[in-house]
Amino acid sequence: MPADRLRTVLQRIQNAADATGRPVPALLAVSKTQPADAVAALAGAGQQAFGENYVQEAAAKRASLAADHPDLQWHLIGHLQSNKAALAAEVFDWVQSVDRDSVIAALARHRAPQRPRLNVLIQVNVEGEAGKGGCPPGAIAGLAERVAAEPRLALRGLMSIPVPHADPEARRPAFARMRALFDDLAARHPGVDTLSMGMSDDFPVAIAEGATMVRIGTALFGPRPN
Predict the structure, then answer these.
(1) In this predicted structure, what is the pLDDT of residue 1?
(2) What is the 8-class DSSP label of residue 81?
(3) Quick one: the chain helix, strand, coil %, rounded to 5?
């Protein structure tokens, strides 16, 4: 049952935080490819923040759930093509996958002034993995300045997806480096408060290294539909 799975995941998050003396991070339920009724069931159990990979899929879900669940928070966690930025700026409350200037400019241009500022995380390819989205660590400062200069955007922090080593412990150095990069960014931008890292199979390690938000799908929804 959705409520049971949610309680189990929240308890595991609490246990991981308690074990390392870290604050309890926020939970982002990764609902990509899940049907709207599965999102509604988890929302009914109390979960409010959902992560999607595809702009049009998220737009359809948000529209179908708006009447019964108007206060859900929607995060884009997948790669954003510039030609989808206009719709993304309308659909999402957070975009966690900003990694280049063109996306920053497009999101800022299309975010309606009557809406709250769009929360932005800079995605970092912390290990330089080929074919993966995210900026190199050396580009964080420049991108952060550009986000911070846009009045319709709010710079909130960093996001990363480390190399998926079979042993979650092998991901610890990447998580630790992300925390160092986050702390450096937060020292220069007072509004920075979010480090999004860790998924269903490695979130205890991410929490130990300082994640403030974890992104969990399978443990909440079960296997993704084919």
Answers:
(1) 80
(2) -
(3) 45, 20, 35
Answer for the pair 205, 165: CB distance below 8 angstroms, yes or no.
no
On whether the CB atoms of residues 136 and 172 are closer than 8 A, the answer is no
Q: How far apart are CA 15 and CA 111, in angstroms?
A: 38
| Residue burial 22-53, b: 16+ Cβ < 10 Å; e: rest | beebbbbbbbbebebebbbbbbeeebebbbbb
Parts of the chain with a pLDDT under 50: none
pLDDT digits (tens, 9 = 90+) for 17-56: 999 999 999 999 999 999 999 999 999 999 999 999 999 9
Separation of CA 93 from chain center: 11
Alpha helices in 76-156 (DSSP H): 85-91, 101-110, 140-148
The H-or-E segment that residue 155 falls in is strand 153-159
Question: Rounded to whole angstroms, how far apart are CA atoms 6 and 9?
Answer: 5
Token look-up 């390690």 returns: 205
Q: What is the pLDDT of residue 85?
A: 95
Instruction: Note whether 65 and 40 are within 8 A (CB).
Output: yes
56/87 Cα distance (integer angstroms)? 8
- Return the number of other C-beta atoms located less than 10 Å from residue 12's C-beta: 17
Retrieve residue 124's tokens.
Answer: 């970092």
Cα atoms found within 13 Å of the Cα of residue 211, Cβ hemisphere only: 30
Residue 188's pLDDT is what? 97
Distance in angstroms (rounded) separating the CA atoms of residues 206 and 221: 20
Residue reference for tokens 């909440």? 220
